[in-house]
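Weekly sync, protein design subgroup
Attendees: M.S., D.O., the rotation student, P.L. (late)

Item 1: inverse folding check
M.S. brought a backbone from last month's batch and wanted to see whether the design step gives back something sensible before we order anything. D.O. pointed out we never logged the input encoding, so this time it goes straight into the notes. C-alpha cells as presented (462 positions):
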C-alpha cells in the first residue's frame, strides 16, 4: 500500500511502539526523580549529621568550620512556594581554625531559604527575608586586635530583619585588661549586610542588654534605641544604670573588626562619687558625695592597650573626706580652727558644692581645679586617688596673683585608715599639676627652684 508492503509497515509499527515505551519510561523516571529528590534531601537533612560532610567539603578552604546539631523543616507556608519555607537549625556553631579567634554558637535559629544572586561587583549573595536568633553566644579568647590581614573575595549575606533573643559575649582577662562580658542582649537589626571577605557589617536597629561588665565597670539595663553600623563602624545612643544613676551615652566605635577606636560621651546626674572612684581605682574610696559629670571616654585606636582615658567636667554635692579614727586631736583642732574648713562630728572634712574637672585612667582618679566659694574667697581642691591612696590639696586662693602667691593650704595624704595632715608648702600649691603628688624629693626641690625664679623675674619686671 502506497509503496509499503506489510513487512515494512510491521517494522515501522514496532519502532514506534518502542519509542513510545522509551518516552514512557523516561517520563516515569523523571516523575520518580521529582518525588524522590525532595525525600532524599529531607532524609539527608533530618539525619543527624547528614549534611555535615557536605559542609566540611564546601568550607575546607575557609578559615572557619561550620557544624550543627539538628536541622528541621518547619510546617509553615506552602509546599508550592519555596520562598515561604522555613528551617530551624539547632546547635549551629562557627569554629575558627585559628584558636585565637572567637567562637560563635547559636542555640536555635529560624530562617527562610535564601535567594541566590550576585552583587553589582560580582560577589555571590545570599538574601534572607528575616531570621530569628536565639541564644547566640560569642566567646572570645583574647582582648586584642586581630593580626593584620588582607580582604579577600567572599560572600555577601543579607537579611531584611534579624531578631536577637538572649545573646551574650564574653572575653577572659588579657593583661592589662580584665575580663569583660555583655549578657541578656535582645533587639532587632534591619537591612543587615555582612561581607565575609572584608569582614564588614552594616545594619541599623535597636538593642538592649541586661548587663555590661569590663573590669570594675558595671552597667546595667542598657537601652540603645539607636544602633547603626556602617561597614563595621558603629554609632549608638542610649542609656544605662551606673553608680546609682541613669547615664546617657552617645558613642562611636570605628573599624571594630580591625582595631577599634572608641569615643563615648557620658552624661551622668546624681551618681555616687565613691562608686565612680572605686570603679576607676579598684580600691575603697576615701572621698564621698553626689556627682554630676559630663565625660568623654577615649580608648583603642592609637592608644596603648589598657590606656583608656575618661575626662570631663564635674559638679560635686555634699563632698566629704573621711579622716581616720587615729587622727590626732591636735590635727582635728587645727582643722576646726581654720575658717575655710568644716569638720563634722564624724571627723569628716565637709565641702560645699564644687565644680571642676575629673580624669579617670586605669587605677587612678584625679580631681583637677575643683573650686567652691568660701565666703568672699574661693577654695580650690586638687587631688588623686591611686591604688586606694589619697593625695588631696585644699587651697584658699589669694584675692589676686594666684599664679605666683600660694595663699594658704593643707595637704591630706595616705591610706583610708592612715592619713596624714599638714600645712601645704608653696611648691605644693603652685606646681603645674597640684593634683599629682611629687614623685620624689628631687622633683619637689626642682619645682621650688622654678617658683623662686619665676617670683624673682616677676619682681624684677615690676
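Designed sequence read out in the meeting:
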Amino acid at each position: 500500500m502506497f509503496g509499503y508492503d506489510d513487512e515494512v509497515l510491521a517494522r515501522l509499527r514496532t519502532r514506534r511502539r518502542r519509542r513510545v515505551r522509551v518516552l514512557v519510561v523516561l517520563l516515569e523516571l523523571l516523575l520518580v526523580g521529582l518525588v524522590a529528590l525532595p525525600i532524599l534531601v529531607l532524609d539527608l537533612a533530618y539525619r543527624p549529621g547528614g549534611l555535615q560532610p557536605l559542609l566540611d567539603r564546601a568550607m575546607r578552604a575557609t578559615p572557619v568550620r561550620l557544624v550543627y546539631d539538628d536541622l528541621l523543616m518547619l510546617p509553615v507556608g506552602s509546599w508550592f512556594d519555596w520562598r515561604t519555607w522555613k528551617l530551624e537549625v539547632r546547635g549551629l556553631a562557627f569554629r575558627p581554625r585559628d584558636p585565637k579567634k572567637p567562637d560563635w554558637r547559636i542555640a536555635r535559629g529560624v530562617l527562610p531559604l535564601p535567594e541566590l544572586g550576585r552583587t553589582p561587583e560580582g560577589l555571590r549573595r545570599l538574601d534572607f527575608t528575616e531570621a530569628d536568633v536565639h541564644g547566640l553566644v560569642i566567646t572570645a579568647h583574647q582582648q586584642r586586635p586581630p593580626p593584620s590581614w588582607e580582604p579577600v573575595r567572599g560572600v555577601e549575606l543579607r537579611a531584611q530583619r534579624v531578631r536577637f533573643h538572649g545573646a551574650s559575649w564574653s572575653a577572659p582577662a588579657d593583661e592589662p585588661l580584665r575580663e569583660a562580658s555583655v549578657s541578656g542582649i535582645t533587639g532587632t537589626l534591619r537591612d543587615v549586610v555582612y561581607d565575609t571577605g572584608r569582614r564588614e557589617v552594616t545594619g541599623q536597629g535597636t538593642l538592649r542588654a541586661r548587663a555590661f561588665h569590663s573590669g570594675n565597670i558595671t552597667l546595667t539595663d542598657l537601652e540603645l534605641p539607636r544602633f547603626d553600623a556602617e561597614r563595621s563602624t558603629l554609632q549608638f545612643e542610649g542609656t544605662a544604670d551606673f553608680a546609682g544613676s541613669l547615664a546617657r551615652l552617645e558613642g562611636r566605635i570605628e573599624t571594630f573588626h580591625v582595631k577599634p577606636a572608641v569615643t563615648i560621651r557620658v552624661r551622668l546626674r546624681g551618681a555616687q562619687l565613691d562608686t565612680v572612684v572605686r570603679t576607676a581605682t579598684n580600691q575603697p574610696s576615701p572621698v564621698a558625695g553626689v556627682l554630676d559629670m559630663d565625660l568623654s571616654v577615649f580608648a583603642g585606636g592609637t592608644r596603648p592597650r589598657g590606656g583608656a582615658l575618661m575626662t570631663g567636667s564635674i559638679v560635686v554635692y555634699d563632698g566629704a573626706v573621711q579622716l581616720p579614727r587615729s587622727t590626732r586631736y591636735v590635727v582635728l583642732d587645727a582643722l576646726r580652727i581654720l575658717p575655710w574648713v568644716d569638720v563634722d562630728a564624724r571627723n569628716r572634712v565637709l565641702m560645699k558644692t564644687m565644680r571642676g574637672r575629673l580624669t579617670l585612667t586605669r587605677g587612678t582618679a584625679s580631681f583637677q581645679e575643683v573650686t567652691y566659694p568660701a565666703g568672699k574667697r574661693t577654695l580650690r581642691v586638687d587631688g588623686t586617688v591611686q591604688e586606694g591612696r589619697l593625695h588631696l590639696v585644699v587651697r584658699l586662693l589669694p584675692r589676686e596673683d594666684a599664679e605666683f602667691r600660694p595663699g594658704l593650704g593643707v595637704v591630706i595624704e595616705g591610706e583610708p585608715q592612715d592619713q596624714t595632715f599638714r600645712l601645704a608648702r608653696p611648691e605644693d600649691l603652685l606646681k603645674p599639676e597640684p593634683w599629682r603628688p611629687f614623685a620624689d624629693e628631687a622633683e619637689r626641690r626642682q619645682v621650688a627652684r622654678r617658683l623662686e625664679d619665676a617670683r624673682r623675674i616677676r619682681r624684677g619686671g615690676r
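Discussion: The longest strand covers residues 155-171. The longest helix spans residues 6-46.
Action: P.L. to compare against the previous round before Friday.
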